[in-house]
Amino acid sequence: MNRTLKRAGRRIAMVACVALLSACVTLMPVDEGRKLIGSPQAAVAARFGPPPEVYALRDGTTRWIYSKQPLGQQAYAADFDRNGNLTNFRNMLETPELYKAEVGKWTKRDVQEHFGMTREPVQYYPRMERDVWTYRFRHEGVWPSLFNFYFDQDGILRQTQITPDPLNDPDRRRW
């Protein structure tokens, strides 16, 4: 009996350590990026590599997106002022950021500039006449989920939807 309890205790401790380490890995880029606030673009590129996506925003600032999609749940944004100095670094695929999307107002361009280009295949639903872009994220920082953006034929955001991420569905896992 004691031996079984010791094994169970070790397993629980191991699972807790893995969960804690994964949380640290998720937060590490944000912490590292925030230490660079005020630094020039060259310093950010030296730390994180050349930016895979660069967006010149309407206000004259620039955003670099470092996405972990399609299987990751993060897309880090490095925001630069007009002089090319870092002003903010954060994970854009968090619930409060995703809720900023404005149905009826935002376009595909707005979504792309805010979250980066989707890395999932774009779905098209002919009866709805909607393109759907999908991003993986942790809803409320906890639940593995998909955030779906539905666009009409003019590229206007018409609907958003949160669904469970089937890749993290325990019923679908094969051990």
Automatic annotation (TrEMBL):
Signal peptide residues are: 1-27
| Keywords annotated in UniProt | Lipoprotein, Membrane, Signal, Transmembrane
Record-linked PROSITE patterns: PROKAR_LIPOPROTEIN
Its name, as the record gives it, is Probable lipoprotein transmembrane
**Can you name the source organism?**
Cupriavidus pinatubonensis (strain JMP 134 / LMG 1197)
Lineage at the top is: Bacteria, Pseudomonadati, Pseudomonadota, Betaproteobacteria, Burkholderiales
